[in-house]
Write a structure and sequence with these properties.
This protein is of the alpha+beta class. The protein has a single domain, classed as RelE-like (YaeB-like fold, 2-Layer Sandwich). Helices cover 39% and strands 26% of the residues. Strands 1-5-4-3-2 form a five-stranded mixed beta sheet. The C terminus is likely disordered.
């Protein structure tokens, strides 16, 4: 199993997801965050489960969880969660705005 890392942007994304859901349903916010964390653990075991997203960034992969998408990078020793975005969000704009742009790799 790979070590798991979470970028500062992904940490902010996770908090935003929790806050959004918690506005109406705090218990469901906790449950969904637990679900995301379990999926991340599973990805650390099987990192190639996700879809290649080379059009967004070199080496980037994604995996959908309900209405959200985990974007991550894989190296020999770690899985790095780069972003956690709503599936209906303009993904290209999010990655074009990132400092690593389309040629970021571990």
């Amino acid at each position: 199993m790979l070590n798991t890392e979470v970028s500062p942007e992904a940490e902010n994304d996770l908090l935003s997801v929790w806050l959004y859901i918690a506005e109406d349903q705090p218990v469901n916010a906790d449950r969904f965050l637990d679900k995301l964390l379990k999926v991340i653990e599973r990805l650390a075991e099987f990192p190639l489960m996700g879809i290649e997203r080379e059009e967004l960034a070199c080496g980037l992969r994604s995996f959908s969880v309900d209405r959200y998408v985990l974007y991550y990078l894989v190296s020999d020793k770690s899985l790095t969660i780069v972003r956690v975005l709503a599936a209906d969000m303009g993904t290209r704009q999010q990655f074009d705005a990132e400092p690593y742009g389309s040629d970021f790799s571990l």
